[in-house]
Amino acid sequence: MKTIKKNKGLRVLTANGYKEFTGIRKIEKKCLNIICDTTSLSATYDHRLMTSEGKFKECKDLNSGDLLQTKDGFTTIKHIEDIGVQVVYDLIDVRDTQSFFTNGINSHNCEFLDSGESSLNEELFARLMQRTQEPKFVFDEGKYLLWDEPSSDGIYIVSVDTSEGVGADYSVVHVFDYRDLTNIKQVATYCDNTISPYNFTEKVYEILQHWGNPLACIERNNCGAQVVDNLSRHHGYENIVCWGASAAGRAKSQLGIIAHTNTKHKGVTNMRYWINELESVEIRDANLVKELRDFIRYPNGTWAAKRGAGNHDDRVMSMIWNLIILEDEVVKKYFEIVQLDKNKKPLQIKQFDFGIKYFMNPTSIYSNEKTEDSFDNTPPILIGNAMNQSSDMDQLMDMGFKPLQ
C-alpha cells in the first residue's frame, strides 16, 4: 500500500534550516526499530541515516555501537530490533537538500513522488532479477545477445541509443516483442562502448534485417542523428519512428526520437507504467535490470544514472525509447489498437499491413559463442513473408538467399 498526500504550506527542519517539501508518502514495509541513547526511530530496511562517517547508510546495514548524526551532534545505537511490517511516513522532495531530521536523526530525503516515478524498490528489483535469463545465443564477441530467434509471429520494436564510441558511454540496441502486451519480452540486445557511430549504423542496419525490418525508435540527439540520417539516406530505411518535436517545442518534425526534458519525462512515466505498475515487461538482461535500479530522478526533476564511477543509463534509455511505442500519441500513429485496458492504455495492438516482411536469421550467419557451436556456411535463411517488392526478391535470390518453404 502506497499513498501520497501533497504538502500545503508546511516546512521541515534540515541541517540547512527549515525547508519546504512536496508531500508525505505513506507506505507499508518491513521495518526496524533503532533504539539510541538519546532517541529512537522506526524505519524501513532501506531507509538511509547519516552516520558519524559522513555517509548515509541503509538501516539494515547499521549495527549496535554505530554513531548517527543528530541535530545536536551524535547519538549511539544501543539496540536494533525487527518489528515486522509497519505503516511509515516519509517526506518527499525536501527542497535544496538531501536530508531532514526525523526524531532528531538526520534522514535521507526521499527523491520520488510516488511508485510511478520512483527507482526500483527492493521487492520489484528482486522479481525482475528472478525473470532474467542467460541468452541462448551469444554473438559478436559477447556484444550481441539473443534470447529468442526471429519469428514471423512477433511484433518487434528495435530501439537505439548512440554514444561516441570512445570507451565511455555505450551504444545500445534493444529488441522487444510486443505480440502480448501483458508479457512484453526482451528478445535481443547489443551493447558496445567502442564502436564508432558510422560502424554502429551498419550494425544497427544488420540487426534490423535480422528482425524483419521493424519499426526503429532511434534517439537522434548528438551522435544519434548520424545513425538516423545514414539509415534513411544510405540504406533507404523507412521504418523509423518520428516523435518528440512538438513536445520539445520544435516547429519542424524530424526523423527519430527527440530527446528533450519533456519527451524524456513522458518516456520515463510511460516506462514506469509498464514496468512498475503492470510489471508486464520481461527484462531478460540482468545488466539492464541492475542499471534500471540505479536510474534515479534527481531533485531538479531530471532522470539519470546514480552518480558514481562505472554507472551508466544507456541500456535504460534505449529501453525507454523502445517502450515509447506504447505512449498514446505514438501507438495510434503506428499501430491499430485492438483493445484498451482500464486505464485507456493499449492492451492489444495489431500491426498495419506493410506487406511481406523478411527475417534474416542471425544464427545462419553467426557462430554461437556461448556453446562454441559452428554453423555451416549456408547463406542466410529468410523466414516469413517480406515487405520488399518482387524485384527485390529476385535480387536477393541472385545473392544466394533462400526462401523458407
User: How would you sum up the major sheet?
Assistant: 7 strands, mixed
Record field, number of beta strands: 27
What is the overall pLDDT average? 84
CATH class of the largest domain: Alpha Beta
Task: Describe the secondary structure blueprint for this structure.
Layout: E1 2-6, E2 11-14, E3 17-20, E4 23-36, E5 40-44, E6 48-50, E7 56-58, E8 67-70, E9 73-92, E10 99-102, E11 105-108, H1 122-131, E12 137-139, E13 144-146, E14 156-161, E15 171-177, E16 184-192, H2 197-210, E17 215-218, H3 224-233, E18 242-243, E19 256-257, H4 261-277, E20 281-282, H5 286-293, E21 295-297, E22 303-305, H6 314-323, H7 328-334, E23 335-340, E24 346-351, E25 359-360, E26 381-383, H8 390-398, E27 402-403
Helix pairs in contact: 2-3, 4-6
Tell me about this structure:
Helix content is 21%, strand content 33%. It has 405 residues and is of the alpha+beta class. The protein has two domains: 109 residues, Endonuclease - Pi-scei, Chain A, domain 1, CATH 2.170.16; 230 residues, Nucleotidyltransferase, domain 5, CATH 3.30.420. Strands 12, 13, 14, 15, 16, 17 and 20 form a seven-stranded mixed β-sheet that branches. Strands 1, 4, 5, 8 and 9 form a five-stranded antiparallel β-sheet that branches. The radius of gyration is 25 Å and the shape is elongated. It starts with a strand and ends with a strand. About 6% of the residues have low confidence.
Core attributes:
Endonuclease - Pi-scei, Chain A, domain 1, Nucleotidyltransferase, domain 5, alpha+beta, 7-stranded mixed sheet, single chain, 8 helices, 5-stranded antiparallel sheet, 405 residues, 2 domains, elongated
